[in-house]
Amino acid sequence: MLISTFYFVLFYQGIVSVFSWRSIGHSLVARLAQSQLDSSTNNWIQNYIPRNLSGDLSAIATWPDIILYPMTNPLDYENWQWSLELHYINTPDWSCEYISSRDCVNNRCVEGALKNYSQRLIDNNYDYVQRQQALFFLVHFVGDVHQPLHAGFKGDLAGINTTGFFFDGIHTTDLHEIWDRGIINIHINRHFQSDINLYYQYLKSLMFNQSLLVNETYNDYKKWIDESVDYVCKQVYFDDNNDKLEVLKEFVLGEKYFNRNWPLIDQRLTQAGRRLASLLNQLDKNRSSKKLPSNILALIIVLCIVLSLGIIVSLSVYLYRRQKKAQYNVMTPE
Known about the structure:
Blueprint: H1 2-15, H2 21-34, H3 39-46, H4 63-66, E1 89-91, H5 100-103, H6 110-120, H7 128-145, E2 151-153, E3 163-166, E4 172-174, H8 175-191, H9 196-208, H10 221-236, E5 251-253, H11 255-289, H12 294-331
Parallel strand pairs: 1-2, 3-5
Antiparallel strand pairs: 3-4
Helix pairs in contact: 2-7, 2-9, 2-11, 6-7, 7-11, 8-11, 9-11
């Protein structure tokens, strides 16, 4: 953890300079969420954000990606490969349905990770570092699950192996990369003067005008996945002419594809920000009602016993002395 945190701090500035869901998208989700945190929740999570980051939740949002790669974590990346499969779920091609027993075996997927780390974060049986990691993973995975292709098809590894051209016929890319970088990059450059802060302010106003869904709960992770699966089947794999893209077949995408999909990216970023805030606010409430760890309870019990014995002994001594004094007064002539 210490080595990974070191590289996280060292490489952070360089990574966030690239427009992508992987960096900017995750940072925006965290910024949007932090703007809606209750004061007690914000104070609570400050305990887990490294001091040099000035309490900025967005500064830790990409940590679960940074630890995975030799470029950003050269000394320790191999020790984190177990976490790679927690960033996504994949479904059979065009099944258009997420079935956890099939697509998330042994909870080794983003839904299982969200369940796990939301509990770890408020469980005092885990040490400080484990709870800090839980926060970092939780912030990141809420962002991941709202990127549609983190709920993509198995056949092309969620769009990674479906390749082609986006806006030009020279540079090849893949469908996953378009959703990680391509659309959001062009969107910020065209519509927000290449200014991330302008885009954030726009998303923030959009988020506050976004109505809450009826009966939406703070931790309905499967619903978030189902939404992404639905967008993959109904929108992501359709070209400029709205014809279905074939998995593993070369594509040519451009203006129409971009214009149809940038509003969806806006929507998913704002949903992720709102939901992350709701999740953290509720976890803060839940942690205050949780039982203390067994070792703390045992210590409290011992202290209570010691205090009770002290009171009993003190009271016994006081009564004994009082009795002796009374006997002395009776025996002493006036």
